[in-house]
Amino acid sequence: MTDHREPGGLDQPSELDQLVETVARLRAPGGCAWDGEQTHESLVRYLLEESHELVDAIEQGSREDLIEELGDVLYQVLFHADIAAHTRGEDFDLQDVARASRLKMVGRHPHVFGEREAATAEEVVALWDDVKAAEKSERTSVLDGIPMAMPSLLLADKLLGRAQKAGVLEELPRAVAVETEEELGPLLLAIVASAKANGLDAERALRTALRGLTDEIREAESQASRNAMDTRT
Predict the structure, then answer these.
(1) NTP pyrophosphohydrolase MazG-like domain spans which residues (predicted)?
(2) H-helix or E-strand containing 81?
(3) Which helix (H) or strand (E) holds 65?
(4) Are residues 43 and 66 in the same domain?
C-alpha cells in the first residue's frame, strides 16, 4: 500500500482524489474539447469496450493489465459522475454515487451489518434476494430489472433462473451431460460451428428462444395472478 503522508505529517491528495481532479480539469472550460462534449449516451460504447477489455485482463492478462483495465472502467465511472455534477436536473457527484453504493451494500448484507444470519453462500444469496424484493416492492414480475441487452448466454442463464422462480421450469433441462466448463466450451463452439455451416444465425436463434421463454414467464405470472384473484372472489 502507498503511504500518502508527507515527511512533515501533512496528507497529500490520494491517487483517487488526483484522478477525480484530472477528470474535472479535462472536462472544464479550457480543458479537452472532446471530453467536454461527451454525454452519458455518447460514452456507452466506451463503457462496453472497457468492460470487455477488463474481462480479457481478468481471464488472461497480467497484473499490469488488470490494473490498467480496472483503471479504465473506474475512469468511466468518474467521467459519468462529473457529467452528472454539471448537468441540470441530475446534480449528483461521485460522493453521491459512493454513498448510494455503500448504503445499498450495507442494506443488502443484514447478516454482516444487522441481526440476520446467513452462514453459507447459498443462504447469503437467498437473503440478498429477500432484501432486494423488499427494496423493489414496486416490481410485479421476476423479469423486472433484467437488462435484455445482456450478452445472450448471460441473459439465458438469468432467464432460466427466473423461469424456475415463476414455475415455468420445475428443473433445468439436461439435454447433454456436461459436468465441467472444459467440456462445455467445445460443445458450445460445436453448436455455433454447426449453425454457421448451415447458414444459421446462432445469436438470433438463441435470442428468439429467449423471447419465447420470456413470454412463457409472463403468461405464467398472469395465470398465477388470475388464480389468486379467483381465490379471493
Answers:
(1) 38-113
(2) helix 63-85
(3) helix 63-85
(4) yes
Please tell me the total number of residues recorded for the chain in this structure.
Answer: 233
Cα-trace Rg, the chain: 23
H-only helix segments in 109-201: 110-113, 121-135, 152-165, 181-197
- 65, 57 contact by CB (below 8 A): yes
157 and 119 housed in the same domain: no
**Domain extent at residue 119:** 100-138
Q: What is the pLDDT of residues 193-229, one digit of tens each?
A: 999 999 999 999 999 999 999 998 888 888 887 877 7
Q: Determine the number of helices (DSSP H) and then strands (DSSP E) in the chain.
A: 10, 0
> How many angstroms separate the CA atoms of 128 and 118, rounded?
10
Exposure letters 47-83 (e unless 16+ CB within 10 A, then b): beebeebbeebeeebeeeeeeebeebeeebebbbbbb
pTM reported for the whole predicted model:
0.73
Coil vs helix vs strand at 180: coil
Identify whether 125 is part of a domain. yes
- Do 93 and 85 touch, CB atoms closer than 8 A? yes
CB 71 within 8 A of CB 15: no
Number of domains in the chain: 3
